[in-house]
Structure formats: C-alpha cells, structure tokens
Amino acid sequence: MNDYQIIFQKRATDYHFAMQKFPEARKHEFNNLFSGIHFENNIHLLDVPSGGGYLRNYIPKNTKVTLGDFSEGFAIDEIQLVTPEKLPFESNTFDAVFSLSGMHHLDDVPQFVRECLRVTKTGGSFTFADVKKGTNVDTFLNEFVNTYNSLGHKGDFFNETSFETFADIQSSISNCQYKEYPFLFTTISEMTTFFKLFFGLDKASDSIIHKGIEDILGIKTTSKGIEVNWGLLCFQLKKE
Ligand SMILES: C[S@@+](CC[C@H](N)C(=O)[O-])C[C@H]1O[C@@H](n2cnc3c(N)ncnc32)[C@H](O)[C@@H]1O
Questions:
Q1: What is the whole-number distance in angstroms between the Cα of residue 222 and the centre of ligand 1?
Q2: How far apart are the CA of 168 and the centre of ligand 1, in A?
Q3: pLDDT 10s digit of each residue in the chain, 240 long?
C-alpha cells in the first residue's frame, strides 16, 4: 500500500460526514452501479473499498452484503480492513462484487481486479466505476483538489484500453461505458459544504470551491435544485 492509506485515514471522518449529511447527493452514481443487477433471494454481494458502506441505501434491505475497505479510517464496525493485493475471502464466494471510485490510488490495479474476480462466483459479475482519464472529473481531482487539499491528489485514472495488455482481465470485460450522472444538491451552500468535506478542500474558501466546480465541472440549476456534472467509466466483468 502507499501514502493514500495515511491520506484516507485523515480524510475518512470528513468524507463520511459529507456522505451522511447529504445522503442523496450521489444517488444517481450508486443507482447506476446497480443497474442490470437482479437482487434475487440469497444473493451475497461484496463492496470494496466500501468507504462507510453507503451502497446499503441502494439495495434491498434483506440483501447480504460484505463491506471491506483498505483504510483503517473507514474500517469500523461491520467494515472489514482488507488489502487489495489479497482479499481475505474464499474463492467463488460472492454473486456480485462492486467497487466505486476506489481503484485510482492502488499500486497494482490488475492484481486487485484478479482478486475481485477470484472471490466472485462462476457466472457472477464484478462491476467497477472510476474516473476516466482526460475528463473534467480528472481535471477537477488532479488539478483543483490537488491544489486545494493540503494532502494533494494524484489519481491514476482509466480509459477503455486500460486492461488491453492484461489478456485475462480484458477477456472478462463484458461492457465498458462512460456514464454521466450529476451530483444533486438543494442549494449552492449545500454543494460547497459537501465538496469541502468530501474532497478535503481545506485550503479553499467557499467562493473558490463554487468557482472551481462551476468552471471545471459545470453546474445546472433545475426545478429540482442544483446539479453538478459528474461521470465515471464503468466496467462490467463476467466470471466465466
Ligand atoms: C473515493 S473513496 C470511495 C469509497 C466508496 N466506494 C464510495 O463510493 O463512497 C475511496 C476509498 O478507497 C480507499 N482506498 C483507495 N486507495 C487506497 C489506498 N491506496 N490506501 C488506502 N485506502 C485506499 C479509501 O479508504 C476510500 O474508502
């Protein structure tokens, strides 16, 4: 593991607070992750890295889910501390494995993908979504957040050819698509508060945060409130 283990340990409290204070902000992102999944009885899911286990709000209440994170900052109560190089689960355990925005700080992404596929049952799926290289979200994180978060931000992001040289992984990819889904807020003030906490923007004033979001990501005001443009590259892998 790398410096991000320490960085997330420091960022976890504010990140978690943002997610609890504004539970609807990322609802499209989570709902999108689960589109195409059939929540049949007895299904067992894994979410890794799960942060504070936010996906629970988006799946049927009786669904069995195991939560794991790489950072001690998040690994409390039911959330297990796990390492991406060797997940502490038997092979063929889960019907579906999910990973949302959690892979761009890993030292060895292919190893983590192989681990996720190993613990997925034959016939099951591994779905992950992360930042696409060259998008406004890339600029926002690696430039704006990097400038205004005193711990910095340097993510290694993804594109459609990221796994081209890893034949075993590439052959498991059944779908790879860039999906756009806005973050939702009621007011501009809620938006800046969420961004400040969620991205650890301790060096930026509210007006700098507002301007950064507006200039780099783009904001739309609708009858439902404030929408901030966001989007991720979503991969679906099938375990054959
Ligand atoms: C942006 S959060 C995403 C969490 C959750 N999936 C979500 O969507 O809210 C990134 C997560 O990855 C974990 N993580 C990623 N890379 C890490 C690393 N190198 N060291 C420690 N933790 C890491 C963090 O603990 C954090 O929970």
A1: 31
A2: 25
A3: 567 778 888 899 999 999 999 999 999 999 999 988 888 888 999 999 999 999 999 999 999 999 999 999 999 999 999 999 999 999 999 999 999 999 999 999 999 999 999 999 999 999 999 999 999 999 999 999 999 999 999 999 999 999 999 999 999 999 999 999 999 999 999 999 999 999 999 999 999 999 999 999 999 999 889 999 999 999 999 999
Query: Which pairs with CB-CB distance under 8 Å and at least 24 residues apart come from 62-69?
Result: 63/39, 66/94
CA 187 – ligand 1 centroid, Å: 27
Nearest CA to ligand 1 atom 16: 105
Whether the CB-CB separation of 114 and 164 falls below 8 Å is answered with no
Residue 185 beta carbon below 6 angstroms from any ligand 1 atom: no
Residues 6+ apart with CB under 8 A from 47: 53, 55, 65, 66, 67, 68, 97, 98, 99, 100
Please say whether the structural domain 3-137+154-181+231-238 has been given the CATH code 3.20.20.140.
no
Residue 42: phi, psi to the nearest 5?
70, 10
Nearest residue by C-alpha to atom 27 in ligand 1: 51
Element (H, E) at 40: none
Q: Would you say the CB of residue 49 lies under 6 angstroms from ligand 1?
A: yes
HSE-up (13 A, CA, CB side) for residue 73: 17
